[in-house]
């Protein structure tokens, strides 16, 4: 039996990048031999094992053939006679289809090294089309490696277009789409992910509301701005992406994408706040309107989310910095009201509620007042 380092580890090493996960392919072995050597089997679908000491993944060389539509129905064939080249051939991109032998020799039947040098994302074979998720993976690699000069080669783009036209993308399950989407939002150049999806027609299928050019540009500008705040969370990136949409459209889309609740909630707030922020008159701000916004955002219980909301709105509404600064000022002023102090003064129940509100209104009014003069 022989083990080869494969996939992302070989690619990243050749690119001079830090290698995170090391995956191996084993040729010429049976599951029984792996178990006898102390490997632990993981996952029922494929013959994949964990190394007894390093815990790295060792998969027996396999071929995969698709049977039905969508993401189901792969027939996996694994036996000691499956060659390394056959295993590499079932992979998505040439840069992901290289192997390195234990003596350091590169096994590169599909010219991945040449594509690394030419900065090309190219499919290995027509089998690429058997897995529509690969469209999203390719777009994600574009987002990761665009700063290094990588682009999707014409033939691969043409193949992805044909896959979209044949309806393959319609069958992708939202969970897998979200997984790729979420990772793409954190890549170096997230815009490239959406450009690739747009250019092959997949964006029109997956998130049609964002596809029109004007909306697309607004979404990219907001996302780019949030991305520049290097530690932006997924929910901020996601909400920025959906920010050009009306809340009646953004929410159902966020749900259909099965975005986690925090992402859905921030997107809901951003899109609901947008028209209201535009209604705030920066010359004559009303304390009541500002307090209403703080209530709507549940600022009192969720100050961190409120600060995320402001971050995203600042990126989504660059020409509304006046109202947004007022909202920030109002939040700082109102936060000084201490319900405990009012309780100690004898306020209770409903009266306590209105005393808190009155005090908050007064402080907000004082804080934004200078702007009125
Ligand atoms: N692979 C594939 N098709 C897929 C998923 C994976 O061909 N739909 C292959 C690729 O050869 C890939 C390898 O399996 O390199 C490992 O997949 P994964 O760990 O998801 O990706 P990496 O390439 O290691 O990239 P990352 O750095 O994002 O983990």
Automatic annotation (TrEMBL):
Q: Which residues form the tRNA nucleotidyltransferase/poly(A) polymerase RNA and SrmB- binding domain?
A: 149-212
Write one Gene Ontology MF term: magnesium ion binding
What is the organism field in this record? Marinobacter maroccanus
Binding residues for ATP, per the UniProt record? 8, 11, 91, 137, 140
Q: Where do the annotations place Mg(2+) binding?
A: 21, 23
Q: What is this protein called?
A: CCA-adding enzyme
What domain of life does the native source organism fall in?
Answer: Bacteria
* CDD domains according to UniProt: NT_ClassII-CCAase
């Amino acid at each position: 039996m022989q083990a080869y380092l494969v996939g992302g580890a070989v690619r990243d090493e050749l690119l001079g990048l830090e290698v995170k996960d090391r995956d191996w392919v084993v040729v010429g072995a049976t599951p029984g031999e792996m178990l006898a050597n102390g490997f632990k089997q993981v996952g029922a679908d494929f013959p994949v094992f964990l190394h007894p000491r390093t815990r790295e993944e060792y998969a027996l060389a396999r071929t995969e053939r698709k049977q039905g539509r969508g993401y189901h129905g792969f027939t996996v064939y694994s036996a000691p006679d499956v060659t390394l080249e056959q295993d590499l051939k079932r992979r998505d991109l040439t840069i992901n289809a290289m192997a390195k032998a234990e003596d350091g020799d590169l096994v590169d039947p599909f010219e991945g090294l040449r594509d690394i040098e030419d900065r090309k994302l190219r499919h290995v074979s027509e089998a690429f089309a058997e897995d529509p998720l690969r469209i999203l993976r390719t777009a994600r690699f574009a987002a990761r490696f665009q700063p290094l000069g990588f682009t999707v080669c014409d033939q691969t783009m043409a193949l992805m277009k044909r896959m979209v036209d044949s309806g393959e993308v319609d069958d992708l399950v939202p969970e897998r789409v979200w997984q790729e989407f979420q990772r793409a939002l954190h890549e170096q150049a997230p815009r490239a992910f959406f450009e690739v999806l747009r250019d092959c027609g997949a964006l029109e299928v997956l998130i049609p509301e964002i596809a029109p050019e004007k909306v697309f540009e607004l979404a990219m500008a907001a996302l780019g701005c949030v991305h520049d705040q290097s530690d932006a969370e997924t929910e901020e990136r996601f909400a920025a992406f959906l920010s050009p949409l009306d809340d009646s459209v953004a929410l159902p889309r966020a749900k259909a994408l099965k975005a986690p609740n925090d992402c859905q909630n921030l997107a809901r707030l951003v899109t609901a706040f947008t028209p209201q922020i535009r209604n705030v008159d920066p010359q004559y701000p009303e304390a009541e309107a500002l307090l209403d916004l703080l209530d709507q955002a549940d600022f009192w219980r969720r100050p961190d989310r409120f600060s995320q909301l402001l971050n995203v709105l600042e990126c989504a509404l660059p020409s509304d910095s006046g109202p947004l600064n007022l909202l920030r000022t109002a939040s700082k002023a109102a936060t000084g009201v201490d319900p405990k102090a009012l309780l100690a003064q004898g306020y209770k129940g409903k009266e306590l509620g209105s005393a808190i509100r009155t005090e908050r209104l007064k402080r907000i009014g004082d804080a934004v007042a200078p702007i009125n003069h």
